[in-house]
């Protein structure tokens, strides 16, 4: 069963989008990552073996380095 998780991310360019895709794409169980820069959302499809909190923690590490905002939307 596939789970979908959505994050609100303060992305301003494709570089930001690619960074989030790279970070989340390496996580266990993640099957797809879609970043929408204009909407400032990142949607993750996973099998549930990686928790939402683990994904959020990974993005928050990037957030601290990049200065971009990150929050769990759903």
Keywords, please?
alpha+beta; Alpha-Beta Plaits; 4-stranded antiparallel beta sheet; 74 residues; 4 strands; 2 helices
Element layout with pairings:
Layout: E1 3-9, H1 14-25, E2 30-36, E3 41-46, H2 52-66, E4 70-72
Antiparallel strand pairs: 1-3, 1-4, 2-3
GO biological process, one term: copper ion transport
Organism: Ectocarpus siliculosus (Brown alga)
GO cellular component, one term: cytosol
Describe the structure.
- This protein is of the alpha+beta class and 74 residues long.
- The chain has a single domain, classed as Alpha-Beta Plaits.
- The protein contains two helices and four strands.
- It has helices spanning 14-25, 52-66, and strands at residues 3-9, 30-36, 41-46, 70-72.
- The chain has a four-stranded antiparallel beta sheet with strand order 2-3-1-4, covered by helices on one side.
- Strand 2 (30-36) and strand 3 form a beta hairpin.
- Helix 1 (14-25) packs antiparallel against helix 2 (52-66).
- The radius of gyration is 11 Å and the shape is globular.
- The two termini are 17 Å apart.
- This is Copper chaperone.
- InterPro entries: Copper_transport_ATOX1-like, HMA_dom, HMA_dom_sf.
- Belongs to the ATX1 family.
- Keywords: Chaperone, Copper, Copper transport, Ion transport, Metal-binding, Transport.
- One of its GO terms (molecular function) is metal ion binding.
């Amino acid at each position: 069963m596939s789970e979908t998780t959505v994050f609100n991310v303060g992305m301003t360019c494709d570089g930001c989008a690619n960074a989030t895709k790279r970070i989340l794409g390496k996580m266990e169980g993640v099957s797809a990552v879609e970043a929408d820069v204009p909407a400032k959302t990142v949607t993750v499809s996973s099998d549930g073996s990686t928790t939402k909190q683990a994904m959020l923690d990974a993005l928050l590490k990037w957030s601290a380095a990049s200065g971009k905002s990150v929050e769990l939307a759903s």
